[in-house]
């Protein structure tokens, strides 16, 4: 996947206003001035390192060609329900195509000045947009003036997490027919969250992880590329690094996953890199460290739950008797694993920025972390402070595939996206999750809703 290419300036840099007119932003990143020089033939089967990547053969944005491909792809059965499951009026095809051609929605023009190269709204397919990070990102995209279609099979996602302003297409990203239905919306970008996310489970059913995270991404890509989608952001993971060679981890550090989950995402990244190299698709992979926290409307809710913070809060809420600590003999300050917790709202903000930044660059890989290593014991201590509950602990065996310590350098995200994690205080993060957890319990929301 792409590193920051030398000689290319990002669309957005810290301190720059995010709503500059297209021409200004395009010329800043060098795209408006001249067509890129020719691309050299690829000499080997492995993608060249990004720093050595040859420039492209032709301008990537041949809008008339892309428009013709989009017209060809748009069609079939409109399937359009809102988050509450009600049928929405079907947009007729000429309007969809017209929207795609202009890249924006006339009604929304007034709120799009800061969006998408200045002045045009993106129409974004958010796969897995009924899940934890996906739904918060869908809401953030809408808040930023973009339009969102969520594609989710609701096997692990929650219908009520889907923002009211988003369309919802229910189905599997691996099914081309379903993706085509979603594309009836006339979309021009995709943020891909759908997949399997548990490192521990991936060591028990690795084939499921490769099928969902690698195979599913490829099948989705085939349809999106055929439909002329321009920008693609992959939800990737810190698990691609495995045991780090140094801390904090930088994007150019070795990627040697210690679990099948990380390996399945790394393969997806590699495939994306190739596709982006050979097709007119701009791609970003965002490698999250440990997503955590909640917004007032959306939080972490898996079935079964395996993640540390929600499990600890279930103990505080009286739903569990104790928390098992997986390994107390790691070479860390207190013997428990250290992770870099990053608030879900900060992650969502990074996705919006990454989509917008792809207007000025072709490929991008960024770590997203909160910037501090926190041990399992420290998380439990924070939960005790926040909830006032003693939270009993049981020491358990190490969980297979768990690296001892993962802490991100998010310098590149700062530099390229102008991104900064705003939620840094661990107690405040845990408190946001606790507030949401109690709220959902009082609302009677269960894991299966
Ligand atoms: O009951 C539990 C659950 C977890 N842990 C530990 O807590 C830490 C965090 O575990 P968890 O919350 O399950 O997250 P990770 O396994 O670190 O994986 C998360 O963080 C990754 C990036 O680091 C993401 O890619 C994954 O999607 C996400 O599940 C690990 O050391 C676990 O061993 C326990 O000790 N007891």
UniProtKB/TrEMBL annotation:
Q: What UniProt keywords are attached to this protein's entry? A: Carbohydrate metabolism, Isomerase, NAD
Q: What is its EC number?
A: 5.1.3.2
Claim: Cell wall biogenesis/degradation is one of the keywords in the record: no
Reaction(s) this enzyme catalyzes, per UniProt: UDP-alpha-D-glucose = UDP-alpha-D-galactose
Question: Biased composition, Basic and acidic residues: where in the chain?
Answer: 9-23
Q: What class of enzyme is it?
A: isomerase
Biased composition of type Low complexity is found at 24-34
Q: Which family does it belong to?
A: Belongs to the NAD(P)-dependent epimerase/dehydratase family.
* Name of the protein: UDP-glucose 4-epimerase
| Gene that encodes the chain | galE
């Amino acid at each position: 996947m792409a590193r920051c290419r030398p000689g290319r300036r990002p669309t957005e840099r810290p301190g720059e206003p995010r709503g500059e007119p297209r021409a200004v932003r395009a010329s800043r990143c060098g795209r408006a001035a001249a067509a890129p020089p020719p691309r050299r033939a690829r000499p080997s089967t492995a993608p060249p390192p990004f720093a050595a990547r040859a420039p492209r053969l032709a301008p990537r944005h041949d809008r008339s060609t892309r428009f013709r491909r989009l017209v060809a792809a748009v069609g079939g059965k409109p399937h359009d329900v809102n988050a509450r499951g009600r049928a929405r009026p079907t947009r007729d095809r000429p309007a969809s195509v017209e929207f795609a051609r202009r890249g924006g929605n006339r009604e929304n023009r007034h709120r799009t000045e800061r969006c998408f190269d200045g002045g045009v709204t993106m129409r974004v397919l958010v796969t897995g947009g009924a899940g934890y990070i996906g739904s918060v990102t869908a809401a953030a995209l809408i808040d930023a003036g973009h339009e969102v279609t969520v594609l989710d099979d609701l096997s692990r996602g929650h219908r009520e997490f889907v923002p009211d302003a988003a369309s919802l297409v229910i189905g599997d990203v691996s099914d081309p027919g379903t993706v085509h239905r979603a594309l009836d919306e006339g979309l021009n970008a995709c943020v891909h969250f759908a997949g399997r996310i548990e490192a521990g489970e991936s060591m028990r059913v690795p084939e499921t992880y490769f099928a969902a995270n690698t195979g599913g991404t490829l099948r989705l890509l085939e349809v999106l590329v055929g439909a002329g989608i321009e920008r693609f952001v992959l939800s990737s993971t810190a698990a691609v690094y495995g045991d780090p060679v140094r801390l904090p981890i930088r994007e150019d550090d070795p990627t040697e996953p210690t679990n099948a989950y990380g390996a399945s995402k790394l393969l997806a990244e590699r495939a994306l890199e190739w596709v982006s190299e050979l097709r007119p698709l701009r791609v970003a992979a965002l490698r999250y460290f440990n997503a955590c926290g909640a917004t007032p409307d959306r939080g972490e809710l898996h079935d079964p739950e395996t993640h540390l913070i929600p499990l600890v809060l279930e103990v505080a809420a009286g739903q569990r008797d104790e928390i098992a600590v997986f390994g107390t003999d790691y070479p860390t300050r207190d013997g428990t694993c250290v992770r870099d917790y990053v608030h879900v709202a900060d992650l969502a903000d990074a996705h919006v920025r990454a989509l917008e930044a792809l207007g000025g660059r072709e490929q991008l890989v960024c770590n997203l972390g909160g910037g501090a290593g926190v041990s399992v014991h420290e998380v439990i201590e924070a939960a005790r402070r926040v909830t006032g509950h003693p939270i009993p602990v049981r020491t358990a065996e190490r969980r297979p595939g768990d690296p001892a310590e993962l802490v991100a350098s998010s310098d590149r995200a700062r530099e390229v996206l102008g991104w900064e994690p705003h939620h840094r205080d661990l107690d405040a993060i845990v408190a946001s999750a606790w507030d949401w957890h109690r709220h959902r319990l009082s609302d009677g929301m269960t894991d299966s809703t």
